Amino acid sequence: MKKLVEFIKKIQSDDRFGAFDEAAIKQGIVLKVLSLLDWDPFDVDEVQPEYELQGNRVDFCLKQQKANKVFILVRKNDKDFTKHQDKVLSFCVQGKVPIGILTNGLTWWFFLALVQGSAEEKKFLTIEMGNQKAEEASETFENFLTKENVVSGEAEKAAEDIYTARQRDFFIKETLPKAWAQIMSDPKKWLADILGSVTEELCGYHPDREAIEKFISSKFKEKVDLESLVQPKTAAQPQPAKAAVRADDYTGKNILSFTLKGMRYEVKSWKAMFLKFCEVVLPKHKDDLEVLFTLSKPGREYFSKNPYQLLTCEKIAGTGMYVDVNLTAREVAELSQKMLHLLGYEDNALSFEVK
User: Fold this and answer.
1) Total Cβ atoms within 10 A of residue 73
2) Got the DSSP string for 29-94?
């Protein structure tokens, strides 16, 4: 897809593309992208323009013989681009087309149109040709819009995987507080189930309910901390003496550079700093990268091997990992220090130059 990368870079360097009207967007950008993704824009059995649908017209319909695979709706950019997403979804539902795309030429929104949920839930992918790295935008186009992947169904399957993963994360996040509330409403009952199972696992015998409840009641009478019963603290493991991980709050400050183990790196933003930091550090620890997943918080992932699990991410060169770059200055500083701590660096290995 070298030619597609070159075309995206051309768009990024030429302001005229952002001033195109809808006709120019269709001819100068959309059809060009489709041709670079192996679609034949001159074959109406592959790319049918002005596709008629119950009195309406879809700008482009990508087809496999007589089967409609993708609807593309082109709209000139305005202040409320979102108002057009219901239109493309409506077209897809009427035509029973699984994937819908809304684009102004530079921004491409991909929707899995036939699943349940709101428009935002159905939107599984965004490509920003104007400010995304050309290589990454090209790779994403290749995964979801090449003729081969669309016709084979691989694009739809990958979209469904993203949708399913997001739905799973959403429901887990929504349900965990309810589950916790249910446990807390009758902690003795839930503790009895857990305690019986663990006792059997340890000694091979399952205690009867009366014995379990009697034991738990005795613990409550001793005013044992409920948190220690639900989530006992693990025994402390011997660790080398080390200061607690901390980072100053750099909110409102601009970063000029960072220094890692005596090596200074100039950067223009906190986002650029964090990405450069990851690219410097992580390739040296390829066998230890799984430890980064422990930095996640409920409902918030910072690292992933699947870029589509992170809404705003960049690929870390030399690792096969992706990192969330939608972070505040404070988050960048804290995460950087925690990463170094996990990977065994000294606490004073990293410093920042700010103004």
Assistant:
1) 20
2) IIHHHHHHTT--TT-TTTEEEEEEETTEEEEEEEEETTEEEEEEEE----TTGGGGHHHHHHHHHH
Is 171 within 8 Å of 187 (Cβ atoms)?
A: no
Place of tokens 């109406």: 44
Reduced to 3 states, what is the DSSP secondary structure of residue 313?
strand
pLDDT for res 26: 96
Position 8, amino acid: I
Structure tokens at 155: 């694009």
Contacts of 237 (CB under 8 A, 6+ apart): none
Q: In whole angstroms, what is the distance from residue 17 CA to residue 129 CA? A: 11
Quick one: tokens of 246? 């901390």
Summarised one tens digit per residue, pLDDT across range 187-228 is: 777 788 888 888 888 888 888 888 887 887 777 665 445 445
In whole angstroms, what is the distance from residue 110 CA to residue 262 CA? 45
Q: pTM, whole model, 2 decimals?
A: 0.59
Give the integer Cα–Cα distance in Å for 349 and 148: 48
Give the separation between CA 51 and CA 95, rounded to whole angstroms: 11
Task: Judge contact between 71 and 58, C-beta under 8 A.
Answer: yes
SS3 234: coil
Distance CA 284, CA 75 (A): 46
And the tokens for 169?
């994360």
* Enclosing H/E stretch for 226: helix 226-230
Rounded Cα distance, 134 and 103, in Å: 17
